[in-house]
Amino acid sequence: MTIRPRPLVAGNWKMNGLKASLPELAAIRDGVMAGAFGRAEAAICPPATLVSLAVELAQGSELAIGGQDCHAKVSGAHTGDVSAQMLKDLGVTYVIVGHSERRTDHSESSAQVRAKAEAAITAGLIAIVCVGESEAQRRAGETLSVVGQQMDESWPAGATAATLVIAYEPIWAIGTGLTPTAQDVAEVHAFLRARAVKLGAVEGAGVRLLYGGSVKPSNAAELMGVPDVDGALVGGASLTAKDFLGIAAAYKG
Ligand code: 13P
């Protein structure tokens, strides 16, 4: 029997959350401390404006805090951007790079995503690299070729199981309430695992592969039970402690 890595359930708050949302984060932290996530690790990636406060709030607990993006450069004339080193400086553990919303809203290419992931790893962060197909690509039967190409082009040089997480997020499942079947997720994750082994050899075998897209308490156990699914990247359902801790129940017991 192969030993699987410790699963990760990461919440992506996207462009949501004000200081008034911090009690929700505190409730998530308290749930983590009470063992709600069982053998899984929990992380929340708040908007950049809340990262510092979130790190303070999570201090001394097992709740990790992440950023939602970083620049590929360490510093310089890049108005509005945040570097991986700046996030690390705050006490952040993870950073999401290449989310489909950034690939769309900011025309980010896989080459840029790769540079960001490499910057994250160099800064001492764990990069969560997102891949996923559009609805049209799935209908055209291109899912595996699309995510395979994204993997190849976004994979950071020198990544290890300890520094890289891959999140498979079918774009059509994000925020829609739609999810692929467990069988479809299994097919993509088996493909991603083989690709990760090709790209990272033994380290690729240990890289955590998350599923993301409309994960909620009612479907978490089924999706998290799929082979080679090592956790979840959660959007909407990570905004409340009730739902996020409800998802954690998939890992209890
Ligand atoms: P939802 O869980 O809201 O579908 O969002 C998924 C996502 O994009 C997480 O990064």
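^ 1,3-dihydroxyacetonephosphate complex. Strands lie at 8-12, 41-45, 63-67, 94-97, 126-131, 164-168, 208-212, 231-234. The chain has a mean pLDDT of 97.
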